[in-house]
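Section 5.1 Outputs to date
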Amino acid sequence: AGLRLKLGREAEQRLAKRYTENVEAYQAYLKGRYFWNKRNRESFDKAITYFQQALDIDPNYALAYAGLADSYILKRIFVLLQPGETLQLMEAKAKAAAEKALEIDDALAEVHTSLAMVKVKTENDEAGIEREYKRAIEINPNYATAHHWYALYLSDMGHFDEAMAELKRACEIDPFSLVINSDIGLVFTTARNYDLAIEQFKKAIEMDQNFPDAH
């Protein structure tokens, strides 16, 4: 009861909300996110399979569409393509999945985060990108990926102090995320703080010797 007094209406609705009624769809979604976080070609393909499996069970599962969008756009960013796949195809699939997720439920931080990253890679729409990231964080301030990806965008725009603040928040939310810890090093590199970058990359490698991004 005491906690409820501190929650806004939107936060209460989010806590009470069910994103799917099907346990199998939910488990498939969780497996998709597990493999998505590994950040390699094989794991992205497995993630896509599980997200699609979730959608086969529940076609209105917006989070699974967001997962698909995230998988396709990272395959495009890392150029982890299979024979017959192209960067343009990954962009198109990511955009279609993000837009479908938004159509089903526009009150999900994951959906707005996915859409923002798709815009980063497919559209010259700075205002739209900012709007989507800020909306994601407004909906769920504890969604680490929103802070993480917004930080990368801010870094690309040369706003390094703001980027590090967002990454710090992302790391507070998910301190054992390999990719967040590694990308702190990436932002230090972009800002030409090379000693700090090396220190951070080593920290990520200590967490997992086989994580490719840090190497």
